[in-house]
Amino acid sequence: MQIIGKEQILDHVDLPAVLNDIENGFKAFASGKAQVAPVTHLGFDTSNGECHIKCAHVDGDEVFTVKLATGFYDNPAKGMSSSNGFMAVISAEHGTPLAILQDEGVLTDLRTALAGVLATRLGARSSAKTIGILGSGIQGHLQAKLICELLGYKSVVIWGRDDEKTASLIEVLRSELPDVDVAQAETPSELCEKADVIVTTTPSKAPLIEAEWVRPGTHIVAVGADSPGKQEIDEQLFARASQIFVDSPSQCIEHGETTNALQAKVIAESDLTPLGEALLNGAKPRSDDDITIADLTGVAVQDAAIAKSVWLNMEQRSK
Description:
This protein is of the alpha/beta class. The chain has helices at residues 6-10, 15-30, 106-123, 138-151, 163-176, 188-194, 249-255, 257-263, 275-281, 300-318, and strands spanning 2-5, 34-36, 40-44, 49-58, 63-72, 83-91, 97-102, 130-134, 155-159, 181-184, 197-200, 205-209, 219-222, 231-233, 241-246, 272-274, 291-295.
């Protein structure tokens, strides 16, 4: 069994190919052609941390993946990354572990951001120009960067709770995306005024976006609420949405933004559209005034897709 470090892993990531693989993973999941185990969560209140364990196999794939990812949100103040973890690539033929991708959480970060790219491409109106990012951490950075690079957006506005971190992220993005206008919003309500697509990326446990702030025509991509107790969006916003996409109906019902809207009886489970189903069959037409929401809790088929892509790329290059 190989143990492969982060730098070598990053050398074998082909983002457009991985985006396609993740899209196919969602389609397989929606079609009943993938096994996805229930998510295991551990929470560490005293250290503001959490651990997720996910595993999946897509029918016909020669390997399956078991992923452990951690998020310890006070780490940046200690000079450490807030995310960490690894993925195990295992033979689906004989159960032998083939590799440990010791990615330190970077593959989880990338696959999460790429799901945001897919959700933005699917749900945003064709005239959308400005991406609003709620949060100044790793996901805020990657969502802004990859949505602009892969979908061609030229305007980004960012709000974060830490002004220093937000200013630093803006500086980084301006360097990485010289053709993109990157600005800071002073408040979440200002971000809602300026953005056509809003991507929420914080681990907040209380709503940061009120329903009445969101303009008609806005597409929301909710990424931060990936475990019980988290919430970034006022549940009443769901009552204004014409379409609600969920990466995993069971997960979103249990611990996504959707949970709060269902508990408040603002929506019903029948209002939810699996993301993979919409990618497979197309989303229903939207008007320029429709509000749409994509609730992304992170599905193990994303891990299986990115781990397989990296593993096969390494195998091919070694021949």
